[in-house]
Amino acid sequence: MRIDVLTLFPNFFEGFLNESIIKRAILKKKVEINIINFRDYSPLNNKQVDDTPYGGGAGMVLRCEPIFLCLDEIKTKDSLVILLSPQGKTFKEQTAHTLKKYKHIILICGHYEGIDERIKTLVDMELSIGDFVLTGGEIPAMAVIDAVVRLIPGVIKEESLDVESFNNQLLDYPNYTKPSVYRSLKVPEVLLSGDHQKIAEYRKMEQLRVTKEKRPDLLEDKDE
Ligand SMILES: C[S@@+](CC[C@H](N)C(=O)[O-])C[C@H]1O[C@@H](n2cnc3c(N)ncnc32)[C@H](O)[C@@H]1O
């Protein structure tokens, strides 16, 4: 998979691409991630990318030409173009599962008051990471990349993905590790029993309990 990110602030991505699982996925060639500064595509002599809004109002709006020119160059028939926007459809785990199937994803990060509305003609999907407004699309882009890349086969162990929050409309069960007692807080006995069937049953019940307690809305759509 190839992911191209269009941003005016490439430095945001330095730590993100050079740490932990994302770094390893890039080194293992599971994903190629290109950070593109779309200022480079500005047709203006001073490389200006923003301007005041037509009709007046606060803030600056990103001009559409740099994005059009950049997409002319990088978009192919395999590309899915996504605009990060607080007005988009909410990004969910299911969205990440859908996106992992694409060969090429282009993520457009807005800034300031957003981007000239005419870029919507280039966009296949608008995605929001929640009902709040951030200063730019860089953090949402990193959230989308992180959630998608970890699902690409070979990036993390398949077993780690088997039981996870949001699979099958359930949250994950509680996890514990050593020591078995800490400040009189004990790990549930069943997890130390070595009885795999009992442990599996306990974990399933815990998934239901935790989901009911924290996210009862997930169970509403579930038929079991
Ligand atoms: C300050 S916001 C613009 C908000 C816009 N004026 C509005 O009220 O809908 C600047 C940029 O940040 C990004 N952004 C902000 N909040 C976001 C969110 N919740 N999800 C995805 N992108 C977001 C978008 O790329 C947006 O163009």
Please write out the topology:
Blueprint: E1 2-7, H1 14-17, H2 20-27, E2 32-37, E3 50-51, E4 61-62, H3 65-74, E5 79-90, H4 93-99, E6 104-109, E7 125-128, H5 138-149, H6 158-162, E8 181-182, E9 185-186, H7 196-214, H8 216-220
Parallel strand pairs: 1-2, 1-6, 5-6, 5-7
Antiparallel strand pairs: 3-4, 8-9
This protein binds S-adenosylmethionine (SAM).
- Sheet with most strands: 5 strands, parallel
Strand order in the sheet with the most strands: 2-1-6-5-7
Shape: elongated
Radius of gyration: 22 Å
Number of helices: 8
What's the average pLDDT? 97
Q: Assign a percent range to the helix content.
A: 25-40%
According to DSSP, the number of beta strands is 9
CATH architecture tag of the largest domain: 3-Layer(aba) Sandwich
The third-level CATH topology of the largest domain is Alpha/beta knot
Q: How many structural domains are formed by the residues?
A: 2
Low-confidence stretches: none
